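Why do we bother with a discrete structure alphabet at all? Because it lets us treat a fold like text: something you can write down, compare, and reason about line by line. To make this less abstract, here is a complete entry for MSTO1 protein. Read it the way you would read a sentence in a foreign language you are learning: slowly, and without expecting to understand everything at once.
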Amino acid sequence: MMHFAETLNFSGRKVVAAWASVPFPARRGCSLPDTLCAFEQDMPWKLLSSCREQKVSCCFAQSVVLRGICKENHLSRPGTQLPSLLQPWQSTEQILQQHLHTVFPGAFSTAHMLEQPCHTLPPYPQFFSPLLTREGFLMDKPPRYPSTAVESIPVLAALQASPVLHTLLYSLYKDLQKLNTRRWASFFSAGVEHDDFQEALEALRTLSQCYETGFEADESEDEGDSD
């Protein structure tokens, strides 16, 4: 995982954030272009890392994996108007790649497709909506007679070198900066020097700046004023 994260980082960045959609909200019988177009300029996932989500979606580099969607399931339903980028003759991998370029223009994005879904047989907890089929696809309305447990689900996951990490790393730097390390003699009894700690603290601040954009810069100034 460490080496994989390195491939997504450049310009001094070292950390990635994780995102996932469990399950990927695809309707039964709905093609991948139809599903992606329903979310327009967005991605149907949630942030898993302990960062604060931003209203503006952007990233520097990302690797995205969608599993559980058949490669044959890329033809749009008749009469559906698709953006020119999501052409029905493209493969599912190409469709996902094009959508990522649309949502995250200028970012380095890689897309991977796996036909095999994530299996959710016991002891996997059954916390799913009654609107899900046995294969994890959405239905328009709950069935009259509840079906058996959800046995598998499609999943969308991503690792991103993203500006959301600026707030996380800068907040950690500010918290550590407030500590009076000279009062923690046991902390340095392991051989850590005070100068080494200060150097690591400065490296953390520099790392947070690598994920900074104009929006995060303004936010950091606001946090500094509030302190």
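What the structure line is telling us, in plain words: The first helix runs from residue 2 to 7. The two ends are 36 Å apart (CA to CA).
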